[in-house]
Design brief:
Length: about 300
């Protein structure tokens, strides 16, 4: 079997948590150590479709939620702002853990999910027993994002600038599947996923709030959209680039075509027991789906730290 091409989940579950009704997959014994796995953009829970049974077979209770704006996750109120700022996604995770009765969990993720894992570990370290993060430390701030990058680096973020325009919002809404496929191909240039694998995840982008969340996320990063005042204190803390004290393993694929920091740039952010691993074999941005065993092994190993 080629990693990332076939395995799927059973029946999904739904639970009210904070501002959301969260759709999620669950596997493993209910009394096992909890692991939360968080996907990125433009991906979905199926990035962990092969990681999940590996961890469940080792006795972990594995929870894989759709982030706000994806899949079966819905807002409970039409009046709630469709907000994608970084702290909100962390608040969503804490609300989900509360709803599920999970006091602490190992949290793993990539892309948006890695940033969210960073946020939870930094702001609520008592709830995050350990962390596995693809591309390391991704917490940012609007102030930091004002600094221009060299042209080659700016080019890699082309979609962020596209989303800053009304044309970009309309274009993403109209071509969201074509857009996602292009990102998959450029971010993981050596991953030969098939149409069935892509289509299985692409249905999650049909969520009615998907475009609003994605556009707000990227506009907020550039200071082109406001966040909500209720999260200002959390964002102030994150703007200080807080260190991560919980045990952590960071991962990077050897063929990641998406923008990502060099591991040396964030080593100092991890003050607890820590290791970095580069996963070889043409592994791109969607590391859990492209190299599920390496990701699952990192979760098991960090649990032993």
């Amino acid at each position: 079997m080629t990693p990332g091409t076939s395995t799927s989940f059973g029946a999904l579950k739904q639970i009210e948590a904070g501002l959301l009704s969260v759709g999620y997959a669950e596997a493993g014994p209910a009394g096992g150590p909890a692991v939360l796995l968080l996907h990125g953009w433009p991906y979905d829970i199926h990035s962990f479709a092969e990681v999940t049974p590996l961890l469940a077979s080792d006795g972990y209770r594995v929870i894989v939620p759709y982030l706000r704006g994806y899949g079966t996750t819905r807002f409970l109120s039409g009046a709630t702002p469709r907000n994608g700022q970084q702290s909100v996604l962390g608040v969503d995770v804490i609300a989900l853990m509360d709803a599920l009765g999970i006091g602490g969990a190992i949290i793993g993720g990539f892309d948006w999910g890695a940033r969210t894992a960073n946020v939870v570990a930094a702001l609520w370290p008592g709830r995050c027993k350990a962390m596995v993060s693809v591309s390391g430390y991704l917490i940012g701030s609007q102030a930091a994002n004002k600094a221009p990058l060299p042209p080659s680096a700016e080019l890699a973020w082309w979609y962020q600038f596209y989303f800053a325009t009304e044309r970009g919002r309309v274009g993403y809404d109209k071509y969201r599947r074509d857009f996602a496929r292009l990102i998959w191909q450029t971010a993981s240039p050596k991953w030969n996923f098939d149409d069935a694998t892509f289509d299985r995840s692409a249905t999650s982008f049909d969520n009615a709030d998907h475009v609003s969340i994605v556009i707000h996320n990227y506009r907020w990063r550039l200071g082109l959209a406001d966040g909500e005042a209720r999260y200002d204190d959390l964002e102030r803390q994150l703007a200080g680039s807080p260190g991560i004290t919980v045990p952590a393993i960071t991962l990077e694929g050897d063929a990641n075509g998406a923008p990502h920091p060099d591991p040396s740039a964030y080593r100092g952010k991890f003050t607890g027991k820590y290791a970095h691993r580069t996963v070889s074999g043409g592994v791109g941005h969607n590391l859990p789906q492209e190299a599920p065993r390496a990701f699952a092994e990192a979760v098991v190993d960090v649990d032993r730290y």
